[in-house]
Amino acid sequence: MRRTKRLGALLIALVMLFTMIPFTTAGAASLSGNIVLVMNSDEFTVNGTKTKIDAQGSKPVQEKGYTMLPLRAILEATGGTLTYDGATQKITIVRGGDTVVLTLNSKTAVVNGANRTLGAAPYAVNGRTMVHIRTLELFGMKVDWNSSNNNVTVNYVEPTKIFNLTLQNGMGTAYTSVQIAPMTTGTPDWSGNLLGADTLSINQNLIVQAPITGTGFYQLRCGYASSGQTMYHTISNINLTGMTDRATILMNNATAPGVSLDGASATSRNIQLYIVNNTGKTLTQLYCKLSTEQYYDQNKNLLNSQLLSNKGTATTTINHDNAKPYYDFFALCSDGTTEHYTNVTIATATTQQNFATVTLSANGTASSGGTSSGTSTGDTEITFRNNSGKRIYELRASTSSGDSSIKNGTVVWSDSDGVKDGSTVTFKMDLKDTYRWYFGAYDSKKATGNPDYSSGVNFKASGVTSARLTLTTEDDGYELCDYGKSDCDGCYDEDLGSSAASDRHAELKKDYGSEITTKKYDEMGESSTGKKDRKHYEEQEGDATFELSQIKTDGSKTNTSGNDGEIDLNLVAYYDDIKAFYVISRDDYRDSSMSDPDDFEDAYEDLLSGTLDKGESELIDDALEGGTNYVAWVVGKKLYKGSLSVDDDATWVSALNKSSNSLDYNDSENEKVLVLLENDGAGSGCTVKMTNDTHSTETVSVSNNSFSYIWLTIKKDADWTFDVSGTSYSFSREEIDLDEYDGFVHATFTERRFEFDKADD
To answer: Who contacts 357 (Cβ-Cβ below 8 Å, separation ≥6)?
Structure first.
């Protein structure tokens, strides 16, 4: 379960010193509206129109030397919304892309997740919240008090809206920052970085969220590193007139970039092209040209000097022009023959398509995600059901596991209104003849960073025409916080010293337990004692899973390679790179009478999403069935046959290529965890000593910049301590509970530190 550490007491004290920093957003326009209030009057004037503040007769007043204003009326007049939670006494205000949370009778406000200190605490009168005059500055407003006539003037800008912008970098430079501002005669407001921590590489497509004040003409300032300094390219005249929630910007011209609005593709754009080789041969070279062009460019081999085996895939980037949609391909094969494909349509002009698939078959027949010169594979219709408990605004998909891969994957669906819990939406997706996909979901309109929920699914067949994809989250309940004021709200509120906090938590653990269910948490009650006890517990984020159901296919070849089970496989490249990995049950292997490895590769699916470099691992979901003996083919420096045996009740299997011709493995029933030890610069001849608190000891030597591995036994309530020693240093790592790692852990150490990563991190 994931936990978020709280600010220490000292840091909290420092934060309290800062008061009321006005909040502004990127590309903010000049103040465009105003509200005038008169002290002790139940009327106010909004942009020249006088009206009642509200039905309750709320009035601005002086309270204990502070000017207090009615919050709801002002916020709603300026385009914001306000909700109140009576149980927590919290007021949540959303305006444009900003969220501010206030608490009655508290001077602490939370602005987009950051704490701010108010001049005076908000309070309620007749069911209406009154706030200090300077609180409105949290929303970028300018507030003036005129003591001569008792007037308060609130100047504000129209609220920003979050737009999804797809940036397609055709400028030939990788950018570390991209900023946006309106095309104005004054100095642009270059605030904010649309990329966040990401980099916009050459020919890359990246979807970002841009808070801007309206449509019209904008400009981008793109930062890049040059000779140790940050330099900028400015792209001007980006016409976003008429955009409602999203646009695509092809950054290929400093003054006339390609722009498309609300899902229509830019006239010319760079797209990722996935190439599937179904020719029955190995391709050594592959070239592409527009059908209107006469010659192929011999300097642009799409395979980049790599071989593309039959049933294999490759990825490249090409520039697509809607006005010239037809392409020709020419392939050289390892047997000396050639394949020629003409008038292949890659992408359509009516959808926002940042990737496409071309399947090359024998005898010059090709198909793609759009119409083609051969038989079209068609799109797969996905019905997504949201059972997460929250509103979902965006879905992304990747053929690789891990949140970082999903974050940089393809946006398959997004909507500024989102889909609420319990509802469904339908979209179309190109599966590209790939069975295993990893999906991520975002529960925020600002879909940045890693997804809020992610997991993998297995379509288990090719030619899928439709399927239902359901996102479900589990309630992990509540966990007792670490005691102390820096980690526990309860200890902080009760002002407990270290000794008293330790005793308090020991009592809570005895009375309730360190981990409790939501039901037990609620049973503590709303009494003062119950509320105090509950503040020492923190809600845990439940696990999220995507599940497939109602899969329909077009009757083409199903996936019989074995990865249609319920047991995950942790595969590690230890001896050398693993280029492909195939499994088949031993019974099916006997029946197949296959002796030629090439026959095996043609008939079954490669379980890997790509080549595993030495020292890398991949977690393959649902790869195996329990109680089954398998034959495995490993393609490394050479192709060899191994074996895998899975117990009936296993939940995972870990395996690695032990040598040039052998596979080493264990499953969960054998209670062995595979630990890959990587020496990342800790000198030669280092020794890692691993000690279990039941006094079991294992020792492994790992030379500099190399790997070793060991199988460590899982024992209940028994953790392992890792000690590293070299010629001039030694250090120890805290105890590690291997039961949390589901079969595999990658342990990397230097002369000063040890880091542990799971296979799916």
So the answer is: 273, 274, 275, 276, 368, 369, 377, 430, 432, 433
